[in-house]
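Example record

The entry below shows one chain as it appears in the dataset: sequence first, then structure tokens.
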Amino acid sequence: MAIAKSGSSQRPRSVLGVATCLARGSVPRHAPFGNQTVRFRSLCRDAGKYGFTAFVFVPEDVDVNSMRIFGRTYLPKSRKWVRRSFRFPDVVYNRVPTRKLELDHRVRLMFDVFRREGVPFFNTRYLNKYEVYRVAKSSSTIAAHVPDTRRLRSIKDFEEMLSRYKTVYLKKSDGTLGNGIGVVRLVGKDMLFSSNRTKRGINERRLSKSKLASAVSSYLRRKTYLIQQGIDLTRYKGRPFDFRVMVQKRGDGQWHLTGAGTRVAGPNQITTHVPRGGSRLSFSQGIARACGGDQKTMKKVVSLIRRLCCETAREVEQALGLHLAEASFDVGVDTSGRTWLIEMNSKPFLFDEKNIQTRARRYLLEYARRVARQRRNATRSGEVWDAGRQSSAGNRDLTLRGAPDARRTEEVGS
């Protein structure tokens, strides 16, 4: 039994499970979870400070019959990932890395089992851009800061938006990292069509009305696309920039600003994503640039960004019936000084800023500890813990995979 010290008293540690999926192909021993390994290693290392034993697992590690999970935990002293058998966690952090994997039947079955067993998990699922837009637009305090967004259903939809805003973006409703984005600009009688291709830059064409209609039709034939009002973002060295903002719940259960950074679009790019050649500035540098260095305006904009992001996270979580613990936002300030809430992500990527990484880990563990305590107190008082028990998994006697023989491993958190 793992023990956590608290002053002179001792108590059994809570167990925090991190649910993910492994990439196809061989898995390096030093990085078993791909680009999420660094995040998970730090989480396992710091979990003990908050009374947790933390481990990482994939759906195939779950043995429903024995109610055990054969996961991996990181040992800082030996600097190794080791396999061990764990009881079902007190709380689960959902870090399934892609939308496609989140829809996999094994992943869905795993979370159905947790619902049925009353195991709370947060960051319920990925969001799509249109559902976030609808929630934000329905809020009297947020709506004015949300760019007009519509489903792209016809050429007429496109023409109406382009006529109104002169610049429009075409985006996948479930897209990430700027993939599949197109931009159309109305410049006099000319129409310029740009699309993201590679890190090397955009493909920009000057098109006639008929050829542009043909290009837009190709978006209509693909997955659900949105058409969004273009925003004339403030610029740094001639390139547009926006802010990447992270908010999280802390130990008090309320949303707080964790941190933010500035992302500048790369040369010949239409998005600010670093993987597409974008660069980073500090948040304070970006705010100063967006506000012309005026200290009073800077304070107002920072306060507004904090309020907008925390309120939107709260509204989206409540309206969609989700359990979120963290969210990131793309926020922009246009050349007239207006602040815009551009996008929300319920599965934030790891921020590059080390101070934000440290703070994010602390806030996450604070909130996980709160959830674990609430569940433990509910169990002790005989209450039924509501973990969102809608289930489609069928009988309990379902095994995601025959787990390795747990008797051959060291039992942790039992």
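Notes for this example: Residues 124 and 323 are 6 Å apart (CA to CA). The chain has nine helices and 22 strands.
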